[in-house]
Design brief:
- By secondary structure, this protein is an alpha/beta fold.
- Helices cover 39% and strands 22% of the residues.
- It is built from seven helices and seven strands.
- It has a four-stranded mixed beta sheet with strand order 1-7-6-5. It has a three-stranded mixed beta sheet with strand order 2-3-4.
- This is Hypoxic response protein 1.
- Residues 8-65, 73-130 form the CBS domain.
- Keywords: CBS domain.
Length: 139
């Protein structure tokens, strides 16, 4: 059985919820990633911050990224998957919620992220085709 841990990109980093978006953007640049999980003071997942969130939700709205926090951008219920979950569960979670990045949690700690690139490297062409059809569906 292929698990979430088998296909994830390990070494994902949190951004604390109190951190500003300019610092988040710098961290994304330094880590060469487009998304960061947002953590509260107890290191619990409170959301995901993407580079698009910073641009569209902050800069394009005329807000100052040096004054806007990651917590202000965390909306909705954060989605995640257990490290031991089967790859079919990973695909279902991403498809069901139409998300492209999924944090992987093990023993209540962030251990990695699964992105489209990770799926492409580890899944069959048929699995990828079905996932793309569902995740990018417009209706």
């Amino acid at each position: 059985m292929t698990t979430a841990k088998d296909i994830m990109h390990s070494g994902a980093d949190w951004i604390p919820s109190h951190e500003t978006l300019d610092r988040a953007a710098q961290l994304m640049r330094d880590l060469d990633v487009g998304a960061l999980p947002i953590a509260d003071v107890d290191e619990r997942l409170t959301g995901i911050l993407t580079d698009r969130d910073i641009v569209v939700g902050c800069v394009a709205m005329g807000h100052d990224p040096a004054q806007t926090t990651a917590a202000e951008m965390a909306h909705g219920t954060p989605r995640w998957i257990d490290a031991g979950a089967d790859v079919d569960d990973v695909l279902h979670e991403m498809q069901e919620h139409q998300i492209r990045r999924l944090p992987v949690i093990e023993n209540k700690r962030l251990v990695g992220m699964i992105s489209e690139a990770d799926l492409a490297q580890h899944l069959s062409d048929a699995q990828i085709a079905a996932w793309v059809e569902r995740i990018y569906a417009t209706g």
